[in-house]
Sequence to fold (225 residues):
Amino acid sequence: QVQLVQSGAEVKKPGASVKISCKASGYTYTSYTLQWVRQAPGQRPEWMGWINSDNGDTKYSQRLQDRVTITWDTSSNTAYMEMRSLRFEDTAVFYCATSTWTATLDSWGQGTLVTVSS
Amino acid sequence: DIQMTQSPSPLSASIGDRVIVTCRASQSINTWLAWYQQKPGKAPRLLIYQASSLETGVPSRFSGSGSGTEFTLTISSLQPDDFATYYCLQSCFYPWTFGQGTKVEIK
Fold:
């Protein structure tokens, strides 16, 4: 059974960085993209980017690419999303999700709340 | 960026009603459109992908149709578990973009 398990909630000060993990298990596919989406309170989700589990290729939202890095640890099947220079408006729930043959976001993690507060 | 616009929002309906949610894209996205259900405090759940394909395990009362710029999600007979917010997502062009959501409320 496909499962994505994310790291716990974080509280950060403006200007700090945060790094969230997402451990994937139960996949029978050798290649898929592990994607990141964030959702600010009361807002629609926002797509952030992805990493290919097979070759490590990445694709980012142009709006966030200067502040976001997505990495993949093959040995543990874990993806990481680091966001730098955090602002108050970055407060959101961050989700990881996979994209397989559906060509969309099919399985999702449980979400990680990141609160940016002084 | 592709703009995705959903209607109506919100939507009030009763148990057993046929419910239709519409999503319009600012330019043609072929059939690269998915529908999600989200309940408070939970991650979105994939219902429909590639405009009309039902995800495994999703009840058959959910269906999707459309291509190009206009798409619909239909719930044939609304059940208590269906009261939630529904989002469309286009995956044709980067950045992938979501609609603003349609909250299905109890009438």
In short: The interface with chain A takes residues 32, 34, 36, 42-46, 49-50, 53, 55, 87, 89, 91, 94-101 of chain B (CB under 8 Å). Chain B has a mean pLDDT of 97.
